Amino acid sequence: MTTALPLWIGCLPAHTDAAPGPDWLAHFAPAAARWQDGWVLRIDASARLFGGRAALLRRLWLTARAHGWHRLGAAPTALAALALARSTPCSGGWRCALGPDWMATLAPLPTTVLGADLAETLHALHAAGLHTLGDLQRCPRPALAARADPLLLQRLDALWGTAPLPAVAWTPQPVFDATLELPAPVTDAAAIAFAAQRLLGQLVTWLRQRRRGVLHWRLAWSATGGLDLYHHQPVQDAKRLLHLLQARLAAVRLDDAVLTLRLSTRHTVPWTPPVASLLPGAPAADALDADTLLERLSTRLGPQRVLRGVLRAHWDPQQRQRWHPASPPAEADAPPATLPRDRAARQPRPRAAAASRRAAWPPLDADTGRHSAAASAALPADLLAASLWDPPWRLPSPQLLPHDAHGRPWLDGAPLRCVLGPQRIATGWWEAAVNLQCCVACTPDGRLWAVQRDPARSRRWTLIGAYS
Amino acid sequence: MAWAEVLHPDVWRADQLAAPPTPCAPTGWAALDAMLPGGGWPLGALVEWVVPAHTLPWRLLQPALQTATQQGLLALIGLPLEPQLAVWAAHGIDPSRLVRVQPHDDAQGCWAAEQALACPQVTLCWLHLHQPSVAALRRLHQAAARARCDATQPGAWPAPLVLCSVPEATALSATPAPLRLQLQGSTADGVTIRVRKRRGPPLPGPVHIAAALPWAAWVRVAPAHARSRLRQRLTAVQPAAACPQAPTAAPPG
After folding, report:
1. A118, A124, A162, A436: least buried by Cβ within 10 Å?
2. Phi-psi sector, A92: left (phi>0), alpha (psi -120 to 50), beta
3. What is the DSSP letter of A113?
């Protein structure tokens, strides 16, 4: 009588940028583990629950595909399953070696499926004529041990099932979730902040116990009403959380009386305490952080009023800069709850751009010389040189200038005289058709202004910028 | 009477520039340095600029802006004009270190400036007040006096440079700021300012600071009447040293 072989699943995402969330894997068996670029999971204990091995594997395959994990392998050991998954084509596929001859199925696979960290050893063995897993299996173990990395032997033992794979099992992220019944119905948003203080105290205690910082949390007062708060850096400071909450609540109007408050964390990460500086001139430890400052400003004034500029190479001087909110992500950046996470991550959408924008914030502690070089690297040198001619200040919206009888524009009761230009910008096929005449003009007192007009539309000049 | 100054830091001889109570940073323009007490922009004190419509100072501040972005963040709060970032980058100002805040009104602008000054990473805070009041300016000056920068790097500013620009039309007759400058005009060759208030003897007339635009040579010469009027105005005042010269220690006037 043969004992049933264990059943391991190895899965790889079809795209490397897929979110690593294995929540869906945990539906099939408890102990999913991350190994290098993929995930492995032992599922033979769940076979009866899902109606047999075949039904379980079919269901797993469909679920994995729905979540963007297109490359699957099934085998009696974890590493063999992952090796089979790695041998599938990049576009997706399914391979299994489940019978008693599973070792023979694995034998023709190339040695590179053992993992990228062994590349150097495997390259040397490949040069010695050992091309496949079968070749390695046939080698006498003492000879291999004398010539190869000891890691290779461990890896081979795990592959053939003589030793376990030292993978750490995945544990779900701890979630803080507390509810507070208010003693009386509350209709004022400011009173909510007061009541939420107790929940925040519990949250901070919980975070301190686990040495975690919160990145995304939610205070809800009804099924639909609530606030989502995001942070750039993990936060453990009760005062900062409370200030942020108070500023956000100040802009909230309650539709209905509130009876219950619920505070829950959505994303927490391990927290490292800040290290005190011993250098003279260092700011106080409790001084305001730049991230906290931006968070505070954009919470009170609104994210559209705290902006950071981004340079872009563009022929039109007006288009060479873009202003984006400098704040931590708004609600729109949250991962959609209904969409599977990896599919959401692969869709081209503004969230990815927002993430890269956030990452582009230059570190403030780095030495100073490199940053000015990095700034000018955003634009090519010829555009930077051309920008020297542009006005340093631009009016938020062009201002139409009055004209006299000769067609000369006037500004502040004085005629303008063109001293440079006109420079003509005309395109018919890029983005939008543009036909502009730009001039540097001068008032009689010598002050210089940038004016422009669109001769096709109007003969009147508009003031667009000031030299100063 | 040499000990008159040691009585109190707020006492100085009427014919000399006072010793600065705060650290100063060179402006990058020798003629301007010579006019300012301490030989540069006072750090951790309010500098008020009175500006005409549609304009903000830039050329005189450009070296300070460049240094500020190298050391930390630049906060521009409520400015009526939009910085053209490509031009700023071409002059060596890192645009990624710049935060532009657009408050609804002056009160929120003051609040935002106070918050920015509480952050040691902000090295330059520039607020524009449409309706300046003594209370707002005093509040800002006190926040500036409390502000400290991260000065662990050698050569870093110990305190931020705090600028407040106010429009000419609504400017107050007196100001709590220790330094008040008025931007009068700027041509391709330089900038004309008036020092309205400083810790030192008053400067009567406008001062032309030679700070030419990079392409000043290409600008067609102004018509004769304008030139003569300009010269008339400029010759009335002391000659100012050009930028590349070394700063002079002797006070003007």
Report:
1. A162
2. left
3. G
Residues of B in contact with A440 (CB under 8 A): 219
Please give the Cα distance from A53 to A58 (Å, whole number).
Answer: 9
Q: Give CA torsion, residues B81, B86, B91, B96, to 10 deg.
A: 90
pLDDT in tens, A409-459: 898 888 888 888 788 888 776 667 778 888 899 998 888 999 998 888 888
Rounded to 5°, the CA angle A402-A404-A405 comes to 145
Mutation site, A321, A400, A440, A468, interface B, largest B CB count within 10 A: A468
Q: Strands, DSSP E only, in B56-198?
A: 73-77, 82-83, 98-101, 122-128, 161-167, 179-186, 190-197
Taken in order A297, A302, A305, A307, is the CA torsion positive or negative? positive
pLDDT digits (tens, 9 = 90+) for A316-371: 888 888 999 987 554 434 333 333 333 333 333 333 333 333 333 444 333 333 34
Tallying the residues shown for chain B, one arrives at: 253
Q: Is residue B90 less than 8 Å (CB to CB) from chain A?
A: yes
Report the pLDDT value the prediction gives residue A353, as an integer from 0 to 100: 36
Smallest Cβ distance to A326: which of B70, B99, B152? B99
ipTM of the complex as predicted: 0.84
B233 contact A CB<8A: no
